[in-house]
Prior knowledge:
Elements: E1 8-9, E2 14-19, E3 28-33, H1 34-42, H2 56-59, H3 69-81, H4 87-94, H5 98-111, H6 131-143, H7 149-160, H8 166-183
Antiparallel strand pairs: 1-2, 2-3
Amino acid sequence: MEFTDAGHFNGLGMMAVRQACSRHPRKEVILINTEKIETLRANGSYNRHAAAVASPLFTDSAHFDPYDLVQVKYEMLRAVMLNEMTVTEASRQFGFSRAAYYKVEKGFDAAGVNGLFLQKTGPKAAVKATEEILRFADGLREADPGITNDRIIEEIQAQKGITLHKRSLQREWSKKKHSRAGNDPL
């Protein structure tokens, strides 16, 4: 039976895919548990570059899963810590750059196994449209229901010394409105 690169579902929650790696040009058919893949994606531990993992631990064993990024990172660190291979060798065999190895090591040293999970990047909260600024803007709205957003932005600049874009304020109000709507009893 031929399988495409996109995969073929066999109806048992498994998917067979052709996998190729630039370091190992042979193609092989691998069965993947699709439920596990979805779980790995949901918890931030799916390895999008599983084909680059060339370590015999992962290629010769059903126990080790190259799609499990946390497992791949841990085994890479373990191999170096136990002096089984150098950082360069481990990086190559586990599909990482040397720079990425050191980043993984730093995450593990700081947070243990939790440091091996992918972390969301970027700001975690609004920088300028803080709760204090939103309360101030809400107060302006309550005092004058006909006030425009442009006028509110001008007042924030004049009284609080913060330059805020009109869309930032609208976005925060929208988040606040949606969170309140989700908490309303039925």
